[in-house]
Amino acid sequence: MNWFTKTFSSTIGRKIVMSITGLFLCSFLVVHLLGNLTLFRNDGGEAFNLYSHFMAHNGIIRTMEIVLLLGFLFHIYDAIVLNRRNSSARPINYAENHPEQNTGTWASRNMGLLGTVILVFLIIHLWNFFVPARFGGLDPVVIEDVEYENLYVRVVQSFQVWWYVLIYVLGMIALAYHLIHGFQSAFQSLGLTHKKYTPFIQIFGFAFSVLVCLGFAIIPIYFFFSQQ
Predict the structure, then answer these.
(1) Considering the entire predicted model, what is its pTM?
(2) Helix H segments across 58-126?
(3) Neighbour tally for 185: CB within 10 Å
(4) CB neighbours of 71 closer than 8 A, spacing ≥ 6?
(5) What is the number of structural domains in the chain?
(6) What is the CATH number of the domain that holds 212?
(7) Domain containing 37: what range?
(8) Does position 33 have pLDDT exceeding 90, yes or no?
(9) Which DSSP state fits 196?
(10) Is the separation of the CB atoms in 118 and 54 below 8 Å?
């Protein structure tokens, strides 16, 4: 156990954990987006409410929520530890005295800031949607003689508030930048780099980051302007 602890508490080990949890969270984003796209169906929210009910009451999904939460916690904790180690190893005055040597993209230099913005957005998002969906507080709706919680109405009402739409869109912009750097960095940390395949990974990672975040951002924008 000692070697295991030392390995995964080292900088390389923590980067591996960051990479694995990050790619796992990417898979969650795809599933979550596909479910949210049911909001665009012209059925008064029936498909979305059925999807929400399934996600809230399926035993496998509820178990995966615990795994997802642990993935978030490990990802955030390792990010904080690595950021502190990088700050200690690279004093601030170095970047100030040698700005030309401060290499990397803007996203790579500001992953901590982007992660903080995403975390704040996530807390607001969970409080507004996840908590009422799991612990009550939503109005009921009857679908085929069965009563369900009407999360669809909560979504529509939330996306009528301009500042919430703004927070949501800014959160998706931050997430896009975070993913663009993180996707490529994850493969690099796992040693999955090759001059033949790395360019494809970079292109795929960029497309994935932009399209997924754009898909999420379109939802509040659509409901905000369609209800005006």
Answers:
(1) 0.83
(2) 59-89, 92-97, 106-109, 111-125
(3) 18
(4) 21, 24, 25, 28
(5) 1
(6) 1.20.1300
(7) 2-226
(8) yes
(9) T
(10) no
